[in-house]
Structures
1.
Amino acid sequence: MKDLKELTVDDIKDLSLVVFDVDGVIVPRGTKILAEKNRVTYDLKYPPQRFIDLAKKLLDHVNVAISSGRSMLTIKNMFGALVGMESANHSFILQGENGGRINIIADEVSVGHKAAFIHDLYNIKEKLMKITDPNLSGLEPKETILTIHCKERVPEIESVMKDYPYYCLWNGEAYDIGAADVNKGTGLVKIGEYLTAHKKINADSFKAIAIGDRQNDIDLLKVADISVSADPDVLKDADFGVFDANFTDPDKLPGVLLAQRLVELFEK
């Protein structure tokens, strides 16, 4: 794995798209959530202004996408300063719920969820809501995946999911549950199909770079032409790694450092 600083102009030649994960990449990890009866509250971290400014510069050169496990409503709120932006025929794109929701300008792109899966999510949610483990913090509202925040792993959740053919990923602070055939990687493919159909990009020359830091980013990094690990200690199989990130400094978050490096290379 090369250091991000070794990324060159030749590496990003003809780049079509840059994809940023959110938590642990553009904002620090850690979501405080509290579920009480019919009310759920959680603290929402926003991207630093430095990232917003860099993303606007990137749009002069390439399409920019956010790929998150969070709901579409949440990421539209977080990235409101960029939503709907286009520059030099490049668009700002939102991919939420681990590839389960995609929004490009005003277009909602279908990802092909099966009706049986959506119904199963309801049944799974009902079962999980009956678990009384003290490590449970709450269920984050989403449409096409379930995210259960926990202080530690909860074996009963994993036991329930053994009866279903869906993924159940533990990321250190929550479980993500979703359809195995819909993920951030398939979401990237869908975005590529849309851009080649609507932005006059040749399908054979479509090229993407993506950055992620956790298990739900593995498919994204596998599909991307250039992969960047925001946490080389966790995701070790990537082309480049960010080795000098600082989560206490908004200007040195992994996604900010990637955006900064790309702007430097584009403006050479």
Note: The CA atoms of residues 159 and 168 lie 10 Å apart.
2.
Amino acid sequence: MSNSTEFSENILDTFRITSTGVFLKPYHAQRTFEAYQHLQKGISYSQIVMIYDAVESELLSKFSKDQIVRIVFKCDFSYSFQMSDFEPLPEPIALHIRSDVRQTSGVGKQNYKWESRPFWDELLKHTRNNTFDVISVNEKNHLVETSRFNIYAYDAKEDLIFTPPLSSGCINGVYRRHAFSSGYFDCSMGRKPLIERDLHLNEIKKFQLFVANSVRGVLSAALVSKT
């Protein structure tokens, strides 16, 4: 079964607010700015930063503990956000591969987060009870991402960390941007060079898997099953 990717015009961002502010705020602001450019909306990067600064100031004024913030930006540049408690996740993150529904590869809007996610709504309907998240596969049999994380694969032979290129159709995640700014990925295997590389469905078992995003940081992962 194939999938035709659809996008809403509401931009989604999710971040972690700590006692020092929005974690990796410049990368969040940059990605939101880029998403607005895909919608051909006339807003400047400095205006986006002002929005994040205002939200950060409001949240810090009543801060008591780390929170996860889900913020939706609308076409008219208004926004709304919801908060939830930050709770650690048990590792390794149990993953299930779904290859019966395919994600669309390519570079463009699919590299950004949108409020409406029909592809993931469909994929997550059949998440198995012993798994936490699902890895998607594109029409080229390449791994793309999970519903919450970018994926990273440690190759012990090469002593490198690989992650799918944007051409796979994956989100250009905030933590991904942060890691590529240094060219290294810090994980339980140490500090390793980070390389973009297509990850074929058939080679997944030879890698040590990790997932990462700006809310959770880097987490170890394990493949539980495949459909």
Note: The chain has a mean pLDDT of 93.
3.
Amino acid sequence: MWINVAGAGAIGLLVGARLAEAGQEVRMITRTAEQAAVIRSGGILLSVEDEKKRISVGATERREAAADGSLTILAMKSYDLGEFVGAIGDVPGGAPLLFIQNGVGHLPLASSFRHRPVAFGTVEHGAKRTGQGSVEHTGIGPIRISAVSGDFSPFLPMFKAHSSAFPVLRAEEGPESLLLKKAIKNCMINPVTAVAGVRNGELAKDPHLRAILGRLHTELAGAFPEMANEVTLDGVLDLCRKTAGNTSSMLADLLAGRKTEAGAIMGGVIGLARARGVSLPALESLTDLVCSMERRKGRHG
């Protein structure tokens, strides 16, 4: 049966290509009929350094196709999830769902599906979409998956695709802890790169940007003390060095005049902190700056 990959941006195309490369039958579910036609006719062109390979996959723009199959991976941006999830429906025997969005705001969606297995994942790969049916794999990092029920068997097709180029790991923690850990890293890297207009590596080089990261880490560790040892400042700086040439998704969205995931990433973490009676003034200020830049880019870009 098909594995559906709903959302054909950079991460969706990368995941679809790597799954098909591993021998899985993949069907991309795109936003437009035009993109679906491009992928059906030419597959996905995957670039890794100097190597290019064209990988055959299916494609459709019909959202309802996500209801069937052996697994549906939801890879679209978080702000597109609500409308898409509404089109899937919750029917017994439907495809298991794997959410791989950034942030924590989509966690409550699990309660919408009582008849389907649901899991959440974090993606640490670097990817850049270079065309409607082409993607560059810019950095290898694991996909970690946490099943809501604790039963990973519905998600075996993902684990079968595991390789050194596409590591897929079973998370030891529950979904909220898994997503929060990644979201805290995103809250430190994404808004600072977006506002400063720099690639990830500059955060580790520039003393002023390092100082901002330090203040953010102190603030976030105070709100989420259980994460203080899980997400360290040194660890975030090491991540910036390892992904030095990467442009964060938030900066890429701003440069392209697209809507960012500021609400899903920073807004979700700010909301969790407020629920604990803690404010995050530094992160809130950066969020306001990103939203202001987004509004002005949308108006004038």
Note: The mean pLDDT is 93.
